[in-house]
Amino acid sequence: xxxxxxxxxxxxxxxxxxxxxxxxxxxxxxxxxxxxxxxxxxxxxxxxxxxxxxxxxxxxxxxxxxxxxxxxxxxxxxxxxxxxxxxxxxxxxxxxxxxxxxxxxxxxxxxxxxxxxxxxxxxxxxxxxxxxxxxxxxxxxxxxxxxxxxxxxxxxxxxxxxxxxxxxxxxxxxxxxxxxxxxxxxxxxxxxxxxxxxxxxxxxxxxxxxxxxxxxxxxxxxxxxxxxxxxxxxxxxxxxxxxxxxxxxxxxxxxxxxxxxxxxxxxxxxxxxxxxxxxxxxxxxxxxxxxxxxxxxxxxxxxxxxxxxxxxxxxxxxxxxxxxxxxxxxxxxxxxxxxxxxxxxxxxxxxxxxxxxxxxxxxxxxxxxxxxxxxxxxxxxxxxxxxxxxxxxxxxxx
Length: 398
Fold this sequence. Notes:
- By secondary structure, this protein is of the alpha+beta class.
- It contains eight helices and 28 strands.
- It has two domains: 10-208 and 314-397, no CATH class; 212-308, no CATH class.
- Helix 1 (21-36) packs parallel to helix 2 and helix 7 (311-329) packs parallel to helix 8 (355-364).
- The longest helix is centred in the last third of the chain and has 19 residues, at 311-329.
């Protein structure tokens, strides 16, 4: 597995395809340890469904070999390591990092529903105590059970208390005995969410939503909740029809198979580029009123643009996001990265194998581990969102 050069931060990744859980954990952890060659501060573990019944033994092997200060992990419908994607075979991935001087705090959260909605349990004061300005070297990595935990509620809480802090991660995509499998330090949990709060170690978010913008920008002129009544003074359906009719044939065909709406989150930019739009599907339409409904609240005055998604646009979006990330990293590059990619990507979207893992390997050249998620978490326009068909990355500068 590739290893970052000597630096203040160092990372390594190990993987195993063994069917035997104990053997797989030992192999992956030993390979990760060999690449790190210094004490392990953070370990992140992803294990395919075949191994979840023996998650405690898996954890024991990782702890024995790495002795991490902090560990989180989850069940994975597919794993990613070292430029490879294992979708339909057993996979165990151990990603580890040395983060000198960093504060690491792991959490296990659960949720209860009451008359006012969901109430999160287990949040430490370090995440609930409001601050006017969070540290620039603070971040959260979260792994959530999609069935028992409302990930968007966690993002809402953190937006109120620590609005600038990037949250990255994904929803567990493999279950055992009807529940998710989550790992925190030496514990195994079957519901809720696990996460780690990092402070004193810079983490750069990189988000590729897998869609390309087409047509002109438009302003919402009538809206309520998640319903767009008018775009640029005309019923939304009518205006979108005009846009689609004006597109080149290829883009018109893509729009016909499924249109997406990109919402500008941060309006304080002179112009909007690919990564400035939060992409959401159109989930309903009313031909009588001409209104459309999308999977996100909207407001009058917000700028939107039509988006389309296919393998080519997803490839272009990812490579552009990685190009910008590599530029932001500068000559020192990345020490390592965690990749959270949608389980609708991989071989389901791309004709070439190992697409996302290979693109990250080509662009960053750093030890990368990750998994195929049932939903991905990452920021757009300075706010954290839960996505679909997205690849989000937590990049650790060297």
